[in-house]
Description:
This protein has helices at residues 5-12, 19-27, 34-59, 69-78, 130-138, 154-159, 172-178, 183-201, 203-211, 221-228, 233-237, 240-260, 278-283, 291-315, 324-333, 381-400; strands at 84-88, 160-162, 214-218, 265-269, 318-322, 342-346, 371-373. By secondary structure, it is of the alpha/beta class. It has a single domain (65-399), classed as Rossmann fold (3-Layer(aba) Sandwich), CATH 3.40.50.1110. The strands form two sheets. The chain has a five-stranded parallel β-sheet with strand order 2-1-3-4-5, with helices on both faces. Helix 3 runs parallel beside helix 5, helix 4 (69-78) crosses helix 5 and helix 12 packs parallel to helix 14 (291-315). It is globular, with a radius of gyration of 19 Å. It starts with a helix and ends with a helix. The model is unreliable at 1-67 and 397-401 (pLDDT under 50).
Amino acid sequence: xxxGNRRVLDDNNIHExxxxxxxxxxxxxxxxxxxxxxxxxxxxxVILVQVWALVLAVLMPLLSGAVDTHxxxxxxxxxxxxxxxxxxxSSVDPGNNNYLATPMKGNFLPYGKDxxxxxxxxxxxxxxxxxxxxxxxxxxxxxxRPFLSKRLRPLDILHGVSFASAASGYDELTANLSNVLPVSxxxxxxxxxxxxxxxxxxxxxxxxxxKNAVAVMSMGTNDFLQNYYLxxxxxxxxxxEEYQNYLASCMSEDVKTMHRLGITRLVVVGVPPLGCMPLVxxxxxxxxxxxxxxxxxxxxxxxxxxxxxxxxxxxxxxIGFVDAYGIIQDAVxxxxxxxxxxTSKGCCGTGTVEYGDTxxxxxxxxxxxxxxxxxxxxxxxxMYEIIADQAIDxxxxxxxx
Length: 401
Ligand SMILES: *[C@@H]1O[C@H](CO)[C@@H](O)[C@H](O)[C@H]1NC(C)=O
Ligand SMILES: *[C@@H]1O[C@H](CO)[C@@H](O)[C@H](O)[C@H]1NC(C)=O
Ligand SMILES: *[C@@H]1O[C@H](CO)[C@@H](O)[C@H](O)[C@H]1NC(C)=O
């Protein structure tokens, strides 16, 4: 590892110096209904793990046997992967929202209690996200920094950052509802990033770097949970199926824009089984996963896969898909297989409703590594690791089959 924990951690402490600004922003947000916004974030964390797996799959279709750091590095070298660029929601946001005037934040305990030095960073989990594990595997850093960080180092610019923003989605309206970064804005920041990269290494090398980068896109949950099910606008315009089609075409457009901006390798993470989220079960007053919501996740994932197949042929991009749905559902159904014991409740508070602000300062379960869910929406660091492992296997098959 080139970077010690300390430097990574210093950056992750950065949110503290912005707390006054955050409060200032929050004071202007009184009209926002934070209870609505909180829900969306957790789901995305699950997706991150999957993204990691996808990245690996894209990079290493020929890899056989267990993936370890050494292999990841070798494959990265073989495919000349030098950089990871992350887009999406809370499943892959390492703290960009700390710098935004949004109530959708996770930069307070118990979030991050199992992160290095037990520090909250803005990640919606007890520890690291899947994309962090990927970056570590590649040997760059143990924790990917948010692009909005004021302490980005040249090496972060070289090896990758996250533009993701918790509570965002494929539908721009989803991000607008929480005043977070829609994909269009994340891509605008990516343009800024390219300028900074060019200043660092020259335009030609920058182009090369981006051509050889792996982009990860992980979102979709909030479009359903934060937007369609809570806000009247979209249901008036679209049936659920039409809305899924709309989201899938938004995604398709985002892929085109990425391609135009020089990205050639992409991993898209599907939505997790929404019906298994503790919050959804609580709201629907069900002990088991809510079938209707799960169906809805799987039908959306099918539409995404069709669109991605189109993009592969029309754009000639390398695109992988991570089946977060299948991986999480298997962990929920067969916890022992993964060393898990609690699949129903989150670790934070009662484990039935808390996430985001409502999880703030809550007591937690003794051992989050036995839990699928960290809060009522987002997975634990442990679950992210599991997802990553599983996704790698399934993706390898997918890409070789
Ligand atoms: C989101 O907000 C931006 C900026 O206010 C606006 O231009 C855009 O039309 C909004 N998008 C949607 C879908 O509401
Ligand atoms: C690998 O990527 C680096 C960084 O972008 C670039 O300088 C180099 O030319 C690439 N090598 C190959 C073989 O494509
Ligand atoms: C969910 O999908 C399954 C399989 O397609 C179907 O049999 C079941 O009726 C659906 N359940 C609900 C509640 O929509």
